[in-house]
Design goal:
Layout (H helix, E strand, L loop, with lengths): L6 E6 L4 H12 L3 E3 L2 E4 L4 E5 L2 E7 L5 H11 L4 E4 L6 H11 L3 E3 L6 H11 L3 E3 L5 H16 L8 E8 L8 H12 L10 E3 L2 H5 L12 E9 L6 E9 L2 H19 L6 E2 L1 H6 L5
Parallel strand pairs: 1-2, 1-6, 3-5, 6-7, 7-8, 8-13, 9-10
Antiparallel strand pairs: 4-5, 9-11, 11-12
Amino acid sequence: MVDATPTPVMVCGVGGKMGRATASAVVRRDGFELIPTALGKGRAGVVDVDGVAVTVIDVDAEDGEAVLKKAMETYPGLIVVDYTLPESVNANGELYVKCGVPFVMGTTGGDRDALLREVKASGNYAVIAPQMGKQVVAFQAAMKLMAEQFPGAFAGYTLTVTESHQSSKKDTSGTAKAIVASFNDLGCDFDVSQIELVRDVENQTGRMGVPEEHLLGHAFHTYRLTSADGTVSFEFQHNVCGRSIYAEGTVDAVGFLKRKVDAKDSKTLYDMIDVLKEGAMN
């Protein structure tokens, strides 16, 4: 018999734009329940999400572990979604593991290798990915597959990467880093420090073609490959306006993770490519 009980979801970082968009997607989606408590850093208060009043607890002022454990007792089967800050990624991951709560980490940045290593070793269920947009994940998976099937295919080519996001995003896109890794497996010699970050309005609207109404929420990426003699070039782009693609994909990841937890799957650490492969996206 299928369990009709909604999956309770805590969205940490609900006070931010991505957190709020995801919380709104949770409210709209059948089978999920946004709980009225969330963790935040340096901020406390109440955030209204489509009629749900979410109380944000400042972990700098209160015991985040106690708050999270109480929420787990009150809402059995709780899954946490994290859209906080890059500098909070590792500490938050440690907290979720310590409490034993399944989580979806959508926040980019932090020490990703340490995060993945610690979560995997713990056996705590989690989906950790730098990109939650469904179609962008498919593109990312295709690039990874091409690199596995045709290693060195672009040896000798020069790669340039330009990514534009809203000015509030300070770190380099995790998606860009993942795509660069595939290009390097294809034979390019490119360091992620070479990725050009475009955050000023003039270049965003002019050079990158970002619509003015989406300056505060967009992700425009261009990857250009040029042969050594300059006679051949390839260009890959993925341009996203708004946040709904990420929010909906995040809720898909929550549903996927819930099924894995319920099935007591032997694998516990996943990424969005795992979600995509299972066809677990609405």
